[in-house]
Design goal:
177 residues, 5-stranded parallel beta sheet, 7 helices, 5 strands, 18% strand, globular
Length: 177
Amino acid sequence: MEEVFRKYSGDVHNGTDKGTTHSYLAAYEEVFSPRRADKIRLFEIGVYTCASLLAWADYFTHAETEIIGVDINPYLVRFPLTNPKVKTHVCNATVPADLAKIEGTFDFVIDDGSHELAHQMTSFYLLKERVNPGGAYIIEDIQSMDDVDMLTKFVEMAGYKAKLYDTRAVKGRYDDL
């Protein structure tokens, strides 16, 4: 995974920061590697430069994999999206009518949107039933342990299991949760 992401890495403004600014790749490897060659649908909220979408398209090797990315700002898409696996939409993932425009279910959802607790909870509430059995809903950049506690309770009250990957010590980032 590191080799794939290295091709698209950079800071938040010039590539994906999942393995540079943040330390998420080991956690992603654990979750995604068993499904790497499978036909999957991945939905990412908050795509910014779209570099992570291109990295996911390279990482997941099945030709029919779909990588769907949404962002509320259409001017943030900077990378040419020539990979046929990748589709983007202007969408607010906290607005049911916006999400309704994107059909189907997903094997993986990644929330890398606003990083605000209320938005993370709302998006999870709106998308949780669209995650296929055996899939995962991942929230990046949780701002505090208090927010982790709130999200964990919220997820578990909805009947799902929560797992915390705490990588704050790797790069000294308070939000690598």
